[in-house]
Structures are given as C-alpha cells and as structure tokens.
Amino acid sequence: MRVGSWVLVVLLFLTASASFLCRVNISVTGALMMRDLGFSQIEMGRLFSAFVLGYAIFQVPAGVAADRWGARRTLAIAAFWWVTVTLLLAGLGWGPFGSAAGGMLTQLLILRFVLGVGEAPTYPAAGQGVANWIEPSKQGFANGVVLASMGAGSIVAPLLLSRVMVARGWRIAMLASAIPALVVALAWVSVRESKSASRTIETQPRSVEGSASRLASFSFVLLTLSYTLEGYLVNLFVFWNYLYLVQVRHFDLLRAGNLGSLPWFLAVITIPMSGYISDRLVAGPFGLCWGRRAVPMVGFTCGGIFLALGARTTNPYFAVAYLTLATATVLSVEPPFWATMMELAGARSGTFGGVMALGANIGGLISPALTPILAAYLGWKNALYVGGGIAVVAAALWFGVSPSVQPEANK
Q1: Which domains can be identified in the chain, with CATH numbers?
Q2: CB of 43 within 8 A of CB of 175?
Q3: Are 221 and 344 in contact (CB under 8 A)?
Q4: How many CB atoms are located within 10 Å of the residue 73 CB?
Q5: What is the pTM of this model?
Q6: SS3 string of the chain?
Q7: What's the angle, vertex CA 273, arms to CA 269 and CA 277, rounded to 5?
Q8: What's the pLDDT tens digit per position in 398-408?
Q9: How far apart are alpha carbons 94 and 88 in whole angstroms?
C-alpha cells in the first residue's frame, strides 16, 4: 500500500509512541515485579541504567543503519525487535524461564540492554524519514509531530499500563505494552512511499569524507553541545520532578502524580507548535538561519527563567505552574534541533541524528546522578538554579549555529 508523506509522519509518531511504551513499561510494572521476583530498589535502578546504556551507545550505529536501509525498513526491524524482547521480559521467572533471583536479574539486565539497542534507531531513523519525505520548508512541523510522542508516551504509559497491571498483573501489562509495537511493525511492512513522498535527497551523493567534515563543522558541534544540555534538562524533569513535588513541596503521592502529568499534556501542544512557528519564521523575514535559531533561543531562555522562578517561589502551586512551563518550553526546542540537523546533514540525516541523540543521552546519563548531589550539597533551590543556568548556556550556543550551511552535494 502506497501512502503520502504526512501519513508516514503520523506513522513515525505512532512508532515513537510505541517505542516509549516498551521502554517505560518496567517503570510502571516495577513495584509488582520487585515483589514477585525478589528485586530491591537498587537492582531495579540497575535495570533502568542497562536500558539507557544500550540505547545511548547504539545511537550512531542506528543512524548509520537508517541511512543505509531507509527509515521504513529500519523501523520495521526495530519494532519487531521491541516486541520480541518485551515477550521475553514478560515470561521472565515463569515456567521454562524460571530461575533463581540472581539468575533472573542477570537475564533481565541483558534483556533491558538488548531492548535499549533495539530502540536506539527510533529517533535517528525518524529523522532520516522526515528528511527524505518532507520538503525542508515543513520539516520543523513534521519533526514536531514526531517528537510529540515524548509527551504522548509520558501520558499514556502510566494511565494504560497501571490499569492493566491492577486488573491482570504485571506480565499481562508487559504484553499489552508490546501490542502497539506489533501494530506499527506490521504497518511498516505493509506501506510503501508514494512517488510524491520520495524526495530527491536519496539521489544526493553520500560522501563519507564530506560527511565527516560536516560532522566536525563548528555549527554541528555547537548544535550537538546544545542538545547535550537539553538532554540534561529533560532528564532533570523526567526523573526528579515527581520526587521534588513530594519531598520538597510536600504534595501527597496521588496529587503529585496528577500535577506531575501536566507538563506532558502541555508538551504535546508546544512541541509541534514550535516546529510550525519555526517553519513560518524561516519562510518569513527571519530567513533560514534566524528562523531556526529563534525558537530554541527563546525556549531555552524562558525555560531557564521558569525553572529559577519555580525554585524561588514559596507557594507550592506556583512552583508546579513554573515547573510545568519550564518543562514545556524546554521540550518545545526539539523540532528546530532536528530540522537544523537535517539542513546540515542532507542525505546523512540518520547518522547525524544519531550523533546528536548520543549527545542528548550523555546529558541524560549525567543529570539523574548529578542533580541529587547538587541538592544535597547546595540545596534544591540552587540545584534548580544550576538547571536554569544550563538552559541559558544552551540558548547562547545557538548564536554559533548556522543551518544555512548546506551539504556539499547541493553547492
């Protein structure tokens, strides 16, 4: 079945959302898994890290694979991978998969690492697809649609999987999390790009030497550094927002959970909106360079200000409002990052996207560990001030990013 470019973009969004469900299912089912399999909180933390390690170190190889095989084939293979590993995870400790707790932990560590490897192509391959299927003037909005999956997944995962787990147990919840991945895998096998969806980017020369020089270009280095700082900030919100509301702002568990979901509802709106705004600025008097720079510079700066205000206020509900705005404005910078990367990378958007995503994951590895250390020695207010300062630095780096530098094939 041949489909148009925007149908493919929607499928990329659904694929990324399915990827998120398979990624975070263990966060929702973890409480019952710990009880049934005899794991401690420290051991569960190792399981989280095992996924992140596999996911981070395979970003670049995943991007190279997407450039070589195309987004459709790469994501089909990846989605079947997620389904297979999730089925194995659901069967752990049951029937023929039963073993001692220590053996099960080892198996689970390996499976979570392997799942991270399989999920690594998600965003680099999506970037390659958008670069290939969508004209440059609309790539900001297209990336925004795909990246809204982060907010959508953060909303759907706890709402859906917690209910299935309570009704049917954690194994069935695991199996349920794999169903969307199976659906998108079958969809990628079934669809083909229409002629209108296939752009001329595939006919551009793929010079390895030229790609290496662009990877080392000043603009791309600054873009990746800024995205690394963005990864720090996003993971600050992901891992510590809920505990901050409970332990520092003294909300009860249920209320903190409800309030903690607000940033993700808002992010589903702000991410695609910022991509659309960036495209309009590029088409208007701002031009390509400042049209791409404007949204991340404003988004990061506002995010830093809101983060500082949230740390400073004594009213807990004002703190929630400021942190919600900080999360949504920082996440809103995502589409211009990926659109700028595509403008710099051309036909190598998968590889370049993998390098940029690796930077974000390095920031994501540092943030959860460093934040509690800063809070212990400096206090939570100053720890959040540090995050605000990082946001301002991330904005300033964009002064040196010039997406108007085109790949050598277009010169």
Answers
A1: 2-192 (1.20.1250.20), 208-405 (1.20.1250.20)
A2: no
A3: no
A4: 15
A5: 0.81
A6: CEECHHHHHHHHHHHHHHHHHHHHHHHHHHHHHHHHHCCCHHHHHHHHHHHHHHHHHCHHHHHHHHHHHCHHHHHHHHHHHHHHHHHHHHCCCCHHHCCCHHHHHHHHHHHHHHHHHHHCCHHHHHHHHHHHHCCHHHHHHHHHHHHCHHHHHHHHHHHHHHHHHHHHCHHHHHHHHHHHHHHHHHHHHHCEECHHHCCHHHHCCCCHHHHHHHHCCHHHHHHHHHHHHHHHHHHHHHHHHHHHHHHCCCCCHHHHHHHHCHHHHHHHHHHHHHHHHHHHHHHCCCHHHHHHHHHHHHHHHHHHHHHHHHHHCCCHHHHHHHHHHHHHHHHCCHHHHHHHHHHHHHHHHHHHHHHHHHHHHHHHHHHHHHHHHHHHHHCHHHHHHHHHHHHHHHHHHHHHCCCCCCCHHHC
A7: 165
A8: 999 988 644 44
A9: 10
Alpha-carbon span 144 to 75, nearest angstrom = 19
pLDDT digits (tens, 9 = 90+) for 214-242: 666 889 999 999 999 999 998 888 767 77
**The one-letter amino acid at 258:** N
| The two three-digit tokens of residue 71, written as one number | 């987004």
Other Cβ atoms closer than 10 A to 248: 17
307 is written with which tokens?
A: 């983060």
